[in-house]
Structures are given as structure tokens and as C-alpha cells.
Design brief:
The chain is an all-alpha fold. The protein has helices at 2-35, 38-59, 62-65, 75-106, 114-140, 144-166, 171-196, 203-242, 245-279, 286-308, 312-315, 328-344, 350-354, 359-381, 388-411, 418-438. The chain contains 16 helices and no strands.
């Protein structure tokens, strides 16, 4: 019980930062929907996707590579991992920023203004730094304090941006307010981390090898993250093929609401997964038992999550001017089921970390995107219209989570059978269709 209580405490407190970092951008979509036309929702969504892509690229997935810290006993090597991981975004952001600045002289902006692209680069860089610092603390043992700091930073950015919108500001004002908040957060967090974890004396000789070690492990997680994120532009394009920009704005709101449910898996993994990895090989079987209870608990929780979405219509969605005849709740339930599957992948990665087979995660992410694009195109060709995208994503997510859970189970088993997982997935899909039909 001691391990369970510690993991639960870590998850509850760390969920503040995990939820804030993602919820703030998602919630911004809802706030903009109140104050601006749905077309503005589409523009901010483009900014959020671009900034997230940039954060992933500048971080090079090394926040995932820092999971190696959990198996590293030498403090000087841990410190070197932190310095190397933070050095790369700093080295990479300058040429990227200069490229954006130079591009505005010769190219017309795409999706965003050039000023907004500059804000997206700054946002991505600052977010990458905070993510790396958080991951270092998380896999070192405890990330409670940095979680609370990141929570405050995100609340500041979201609050300032919301006030500006309420006073008649534009979407760009929200973006700027958030970037300023992230800048203050970097000044608060990063220098302190570097002071308390000094670089080893021979860092210059060891840094290249450490960089190769981190990147060699994390590159596959980066590919998986990029492919998971790539589903969003594919999603948006597929919706536009069969509808209008206004309908896309409504779909984005539903998609972001569904992502909130998928974050439950991310939140639970923040406290539990480091403990599972550290204690998997314990003779008392605590690590394996914890992993099994975590997944089974998530399976049971997901039923309540999808049924609980019924409250979203009277609480919020009825206020949004969706196009007439748009199947709001049925589409939402399908998107929630898909995001529940994708969220479960965060709770079953111990096998890939323990065996250093991160390439499987990248391959599974590629399968997700290929299946999503293929299913959506086929369903559009079949004339399913607005239904093509949520159904395509649901089918692709089902394949993806089977690969992740059963792949991890093959490498480092904890007792989750293929048939038990398939039964849960079938029941959840049936519940999504039943609730959508009833709603």
C-alpha cells in the first residue's frame, strides 16, 4: 500500500502541471469560442499545433530519454543528462528563429501571420525547457515542486490571455500573454535546476557520448509523439474536405474536449510509471502488480469517463453555434473513445523502456497515422461525410493501443491478456455508439 499511496500522491500533484500545460491551450479554444467567431478558433488551433510541433522538435524527445535516469545511480551522469538535454533546444532555437525572420521577406505566411509564427517558435522553445526540467525531476524521484511551479506558470498565461480576450483583445494578444508567462517560468525554473545539478568537470569530453545515448533512446519516442500530433492536421484536412471552415471550428472544439479525457492516462502515468520501471524486477512483484492494477483501473474508469461526457451538452456545448444538423454528441462520443484508447498507451510503456526497444513505439505511431489517413480517405470516398474522421480515428486508435499494450506485454509482461483488452475495447466502442444514438 505504501507504494500505491506514494504513486497516487505523485500522480495527483503532478497532474497539476500535466493538466495545466495541456488544458490551458485546450481551454483557450473554448474561451475563444465564447468571444470570437469559430474561424478564430481554427486560427488558434493552428498556433497550438505549430507550437507543439516546434517544442517536440527542439526538445528532440529527450524528455522521454531522461527516463534513463531511473536506472542511473551516478549523480554526475544524471546531471550531465540534464545539461545536455537543455543545451540542444538553446542551440537549435536561434537558427530556427532566424529562418522565420528571414522568411517573412520572401514568403507569404501560411495559416498564421509571421508575427504569430515567431510567437510559436518562442512558445515551443520555452515549453521544451520546462518539459525537460520536469522530466528530470520526475525520473529522479519526485516532481511535486516543479509540478506546482509549472501549474502557476500556465495559470498565469491562461488567466492573462483570457482577461485580454474579455476586454476585446485578439487571438494574438492571448498568444503573447502566454509566451510572456512561459518566459517568466523559465527564469524561475531553469537557472535553479542548473545550479543545483552542476555539470561534471569532464563534461566536454563526455557530452557527445551522452547526447548520442539520449537521442538514440528518445528518437523513437519523438517519432511516436510527432506521429500522434500529426493526426491533428490530418484530422483538420479531412474535415475541411467534406465541410466548411466554420464546421471545422466546431469540430476542433469537440476534438479538444475529447483530448481532455485522453489526458487521464497521461496524468496517471506521471506518478506511477517511474515507480513501475524502477520496481519491475523486484522479487516481491510490486512493480508488475502496480502496472496491472493501473491498466485495469483505467479500463474501469474509462466507462465512467465516456458516460460522464453527457453533461458537456447542458454545461457548455449548447452555447456554441454549431452548423445546423451537425451531430454534436455522437461525434463527441466517438472522439472520446478514440482518445481513451490513445491515452491508455501512456500506461503501458514499461516493456519498451526496460528493454530499450523504443523503436517499437515509433513504429506503432506510424501505423496509427497510416491507418487513420487510410480509414478516413476510404470513409470519405464511401460518402460518410462528417462521420469519416471520427470513425477513421477510432479504428486507427484501436489498432494502435493493441500494438502498444500487447507489445509491452510481450517484452515485459504484467498480466494483461489480448482477450481481456479486446473485450474492454469492444465494450467501450459499443457504449460510445449507444450513447451517441441515444443522445
Amino acid at each position: 500500500m505504501g507504494v500505491m499511496r506514494k504513486a497516487l500522491l505523485e500522480s495527483l500533484v503532478q497532474s497539476g502541471s500535466m493538466m495545466a500545460a495541456r488544458l490551458s491551450l485546450i481551454a483557450a479554444t473554448f474561451v475563444i469560442g465564447f468571444f470570437q467567431p469559430l474561424i478564430e478558433v481554427t486560427q488558434f488551433d493552428s498556433f497550438a499545433i505549430a507550437a507543439t510541433f516546434i517544442a517536440l522538435g527542439l526538445g528532440l524527445g529527450m524528455d522521454s530519454g531522461l527516463s534513463l535516469i531511473a536506472a542511473e545511480d551516478r549523480p554526475e551522469q544524471r546531471h550531465l543528462m540534464l545539461w545536455v538535454a537543455l543545451a540542444f533546444p538553446t542551440c537549435a532555437v536561434l537558427p530556427l528563429g532566424l529562418a522565420v525572420w528571414a522568411a517573412h521577406f520572401w514568403l507569404a505566411p501560411i495559416l498564421l501571420t509571421w508575427g504569430q509564427w515567431g510567437l510559436a517558435v518562442l512558445f515551443g522553445y520555452l515549453q521544451a525547457n520546462l518539459t525537460i526540467a520536469y522530466s528530470f525531476d520526475r525520473f529522479s524521484g519526485s516532481a511535486i515542486w516543479i509540478s506546482l511551479k509549472i501549474l502557476g506558470v500556465n495559470l498565469l498565461g491562461f488567466g492573462a490571455g483570457s482577461v485580454l480576450l474579455a476586454q476585446g483583445g485578439h487571438v494574438s494578444d492571448f498568444m503573447l500573454a502566454y509566451v510572456v508567462a512561459l518566459g517568466l517560468g523559465n527564469l524561475w525554473v531553469v537557472p535553479r535546476h542548473l545550479r543545483h545539478h552542476p555539470v561534471p568537470r569532464d563534461w566536454l569530453a563526455e557530452a557527445p557520448a551522452m547526447f548520442r545515448k539520449l537521442v538514440g533512446f528518445s528518437i523513437w519516442y519523438l517519432m511516436s509523439s510527432l506521429t500522434l500530433l500529426l493526426r491533428r492536421p490530418i484530422e483538420r484536412v479531412a474535415v475541411l474536405v467534406v465541410s466548411s471552415p466554420e464546421m471545422l471550428g466546431g469540430y476542433i472544439i469537440l476534438s479538444r474536449l475529447a483530448e481532455l479525457v485522453g489526458l487521464v492516462g497521461t496524468v496517471l502515468s506521471s506518478g506511477f510509471m517511474p515507480i513501475i520501471i524502477r520496481r519491475y524486477h523486484d522479487a516481491d512483484g510490486v512493480g508488475k502488480a502496480l502496472a496491472r492494477k493501473l491498466l485495469n483501473g483505467y479500463f474501469a474508469l474509462s466507462i465512467g469517463l465516456i458516460a460522464g461526457a453527457l453533461i458537456l451538452w447542458p454545461l457548455y456545448l449548447h452555447r456554441i453555434p454549431f452548423p445546423e444538423g451537425y451531430p454534436v454528441m455522437p461525434v463527441l462520443f466517438l472522439l472520446i473513445a478514440a482518445n481513451v484508447f490513445i491515452g491508455a498507451s501512456m500506461l503501458s510503456g514499461q516493456g519498451f523502456v526496460l528493454t530499450r526497444k523504443g523503436h517499437f513505439v515509433g513504429a506503432a505511431g506510424a501505423v496509427l497515422i497510416a491507418a487513420f489517413a487510410g480509414f478516413s480517405a476510404l470513409l470519405i470516398f464511401m460518402g460518410l461525410g462528417i462521420w469519416a474522421t471520427p470513425l477513421g480515428l477510432l479504428g486507427a486508435a484501436a489498432i494502435y493501443i493493441l500494438l502498444i499494450v500487447q507489445g509491452s506485454e510481450y517484452l515485459a509482461p504484467v498480466g494483461i491478456s489480448f482477450w481481456w483488452q479486446s473485450g474492454w475495447m469492444t465494450g467501450l466502442i459499443g457504449l460510445a455508439f449507444a450513447l451517441g444514438y441515444w443522445a
